[in-house]
Amino acid sequence: MRREPQSFQSADDSIRLIDQVSSAAARRVPLRIRGGDTKASLGRPVEGEALDMRSHCGVVSYDPTELVVTVRAGTPVAQLNAVLDEAGQMLPCEPPEFGGEATVGGAVASGLSGPRRPWVGALRDFVLGCRLITSEGKYVRFGGEVMKNVAGYDLSRLMAGSFGCLGVIADVSLKVLPKPRAAHCLRVDMSAADALDRIVEWRRAGLPVTGACHIGDTLYLRLEGGTASVQSAAQRIGGAAIDPAFWADLREQRLPFFAGPECLWRLSLPNHVGVEALPGEAALDWGGAQRWLKSNAPAASIRRIAESAGGHATCFTPAAGVEPFQPLPAPLLRFHRQLKQKLDPHGIFNPGRMYADL
Predict the structure, then answer these.
(1) Residue 69's beta-bridge partner residues?
(2) Record's Pfam families (predicted)?
(3) Are 219 and 250 in contact (CB under 8 A)?
(4) Could you give the CA distance from residue 178 to residue 98 in angstroms, rounded to a whole number?
(5) Which phi and psi (to 5°) does residue 52 adopt?
């Protein structure tokens, strides 16, 4: 059953895309795959012929009873969210909309997940299948629309976070979930160290936390689930109620924290790691597993800190001489090269977007 508002654009532009990819492969011309270009600064710049995905858009199929939606890659995330909202459902991983310009294909390719990620899973965990355009101009399907269809399942999820370097995502099937029956958002004044301890305590106690962010001297929490469990948790934690829009502003990087001239770094760390060693102003998201850091410290120093703590660091702000992604160990780099060679033997898809020689 299709549930797409009539005002939303829907168009299958796969023939044009396949023709352009085939032509580029024949001419050995690199392609810069683009959607809304909201994440163009995340990653290394790509020199190539633009492959614009925005004309390939719209919901292909959606039956709310099956909790699966199939959508074309050029569809804005905001429009998909509106379709799901009509049915009382959502994308649990909360990919950012970035002013309504971010596309579903770009969301999957970047693999960015919102505040719910530690409690429901990453974006890749909700990818059931996808249709790709290969470097040979073939239109192929991997995975499916049900969890039981495992053929091509892993390859579909491999597209999440690949930044378009392995193939052109044309369509994607995503698992969705019902919206929670009750929600309560609050703030509690406490230090970052105390916040990390309390979050662990609340998780062990089974409290329905689906968002935990610490900025300055304040811990922000989101509770979601059944009415009774949310009310009970809110009474136990205390604090003051806040506008739920806080979580959208965090996801979209609209909070005052994200303003300023410093470089913005995203550190993925074990959530028990302390904050004292970070050289700059930090905000803790994902219950401490994701740290946003504003700092002009040398990239090598920031990455050394992240690596010594068992994590990695990504630069979200273009900076001269700074590689955006954590350098790969030699064995992992060799695997990436082999994978790129297998899936994109002509090297035409977003060459160098993640690493210089990939």
Answers:
(1) 62, 174
(2) FAD_binding_4
(3) no
(4) 23
(5) -85, 120
**CA distances from residue 354 to 45, 194, 334 in whole angstroms, order as listed:** 9, 36, 14
Class of domain 14-178: alpha beta
Q: What is the pTM of this model?
A: 0.93
Torsional sign, CA 293, 298, 304, 305: negative
In angstroms, the CA 287 to CA 190 distance is 14
In b/e form, how buried is each residue of 101-138, taking b as 16+ CB within 10 angstroms?
bbbbbbbbbbbbbbbbbbbbebbbebbbbbbbbbbebe
* Residue ranges covered by each domain of the chain: 14-178, 182-251
The dihedral of CA 164, 267, 189, 258: what is its sign?
negative
**Pair 294, 125: CB distance under 8 Å:** no
Contacts of 74 (CB under 8 A, 6+ apart): 13, 35, 53, 54, 55, 56, 57, 103, 104, 105
Contact between residue 43 and residue 353 where contact means Cβ atoms under 8 Å apart: yes
pLDDT digits (tens, 9 = 90+) for 11-24: 999 999 999 999 99
- First-to-last alpha carbon distance for the chain, in angstroms, is 41
User: Which CATH number applies to 182-251?
Assistant: 3.30.70
Residues 184 and 225: their CA atoms lie apart, in Å, by 9
